[in-house]
Design a protein that fits this description.
The structure is a single chain. This protein is mainly alpha-helical. It contains 15 helices and four strands. Helix 3 (about 95-110) links the parallel strand 3 (about 80-85) and strand 4. The longest helix is centred in the middle third of the chain and has 32 residues, at about 240-270. The radius of gyration is 24 Å and the shape is globular.
Length: about 400
């Protein structure tokens, strides 16, 4: 940081904290170069607690295999092994099950373990992937590393009330595919749903900075969803099962949508208008099917989100203000400058019922219809996607 005396800054910050509370402990996030070594190296031990923010994937505590490794760790300061997992509160199955276990024990058995003070959860949105939080918070109760395959047997029993081999096999498929994100990846959370993406001929990710990559076979997820559904008669009505069935089926439907979108891309490349039209209709069917599925659970509904925001207001004007801002957060994030130039659009997007049918479906229908209308034309008018999003924000 050019022009900043980092050592003096760190000492001044701690001094100010200690004036207010002589026992104050500075809690700092370890993210990229922060906290800078010069800022913390002269601070007394016990005055600082560092959260190794993304330790399950890009640890900084001293793991030499990590691209973000600090060779001296946190210089003897207290720290916690944290799991970030989720950026923007996006919906989607995601995690690195075995890596979370192995990474935790690698840290615990390292030379830096003497200042390790436990575990932490640092997600930007926590209401997703309950299996990962269950796994992480159980780690301190284990003295030795273990295999996720063994752990999942007990997880199935505790989560659903009874052990079932079909559910166990489904979880194994998920653990070896979508829940096996590669170590050292810069991917920011879930493999985003194509339904939520801004349409284009080469749509892939949703948010600007997702850095997502294809690290698993989507058929594994689809098969796991089929296995979950096959035991519905035995487990329906059990809240955890009902939630997981919807969530895993949602992921499978998103995977099918991405596969169909690839057919749309191939049809465009081959100049096959009838195939594009057919694939486009199938894509829209899947998108609306997703909306109907997610409407069955309050956790996956737009109205749950906006109604909670609206309830904070005490006047009609306040209620409208909070409702509008709740919708902004999950779409444009702000005005055109923030959304487009700042790259913040869809950062906190959600694959939710209501949002799919009201906004995402309109985006994709606009794109598909325009492609078909201008199929043989040398060019087509550009679509102002921000204007389309903003129009939805102003409704209701």
């Amino acid at each position: 940081m050019q022009g900043v005396d980092l050592q003096a800054s760190g000492e001044a910050i701690l001094k100010a904290m200690r004036r207010a509370n002589p026992k104050a402990v500075w809690v700092a996030q370890a993210w990229q170069a922060c906290p800078h070594q010069k800022m913390i190296e002269t601070l007394p031990k016990g005055s600082l607690l560092i959260l190794d923010l993304f330790a399950e994937n890009l640890p900084q505590w001293g793991d030499p295999a990590s691209p973000w490794c600090r060779k001296q760790g946190f210089m003897g300061h207290d720290w916690t092994y944290c799991m970030l997992l989720n950026y923007g509160g996006n919906v989607g199955l995601h995690g690195a099950m075995q890596q979370v276990v192995d990474g935790y024990f690698k840290a615990r058995q390292s030379e830096f373990a003497t200042s390790m003070r436990g575990i932490g959860m640092t997600p930007e949105g926590i209401e997703n992937n309950p299996v990962m939080y269950e796994l992480l918070t159980e780690l301190p109760w284990h003295n030795e590393p273990f295999k996720v395959e063994e752990w999942l047997k007990e997880y199935v029993t505790s989560r659903y009330g009874d052990y079932n081999p079909t559910l166990y096999e489904a979880w194994l498929k998920l653990a070896h595919s979508i829940y096996a994100a590669p170590f050292g990846s810069y991917q920011q959370g879930t493999h985003e749903s194509i339904f939520c993406a801004r349409p284009s001929d080469k749509a892939y990710q949703v948010s600007s900075w997702s850095c997502m990559q294809d690290y698993y076979d989507p058929q594994e997820v689809i098969q796991a969803a089929e296995q979950f559904a096959s035991v519905r008669k035995s487990f329906e009505g059990r809240t955890n099962y009902d939630y997981d069935l919807v969530d895993i089926t949602r992921q499978a439907t998103a995977e099918r949508g991405r596969l169909v979108y690839k057919v749309m891309q191939a049809a465009l490349a081959a100049g096959e208008k009838p195939l594009f039209a057919q694939a486009g209709e199938r894509f829209m069917q899947l998108l609306m099917q997703q909306d109907s599925l997610l409407a069955t659970r309050p956790e996956f509904r737009l109205d749950t989100w906006v109604n909670r925001a609206e309830a904070i207001g005490s006047t009609p004007e306040e209620k409208a203000h909070y409702r509008f801002n709740a919708k902004v957060q999950i779409t444009t994030w702000g005005n055109r400058l923030a959304a487009e130039d700042g790259g913040l659009r869809d950062y906190a997007h959600k694959e939710w019922s209501g949002l799919l049918s009201q906004l995402y479906a309109k985006r994709w229908r606009t794109y598909i219809d325009q492609k078909l209308r201008y199929w043989d034309a040398p060019s087509a008018p550009s679509i102002d996607w921000f204007a389309l999003d903003e129009q939805w924000l102003r409704l209701n």
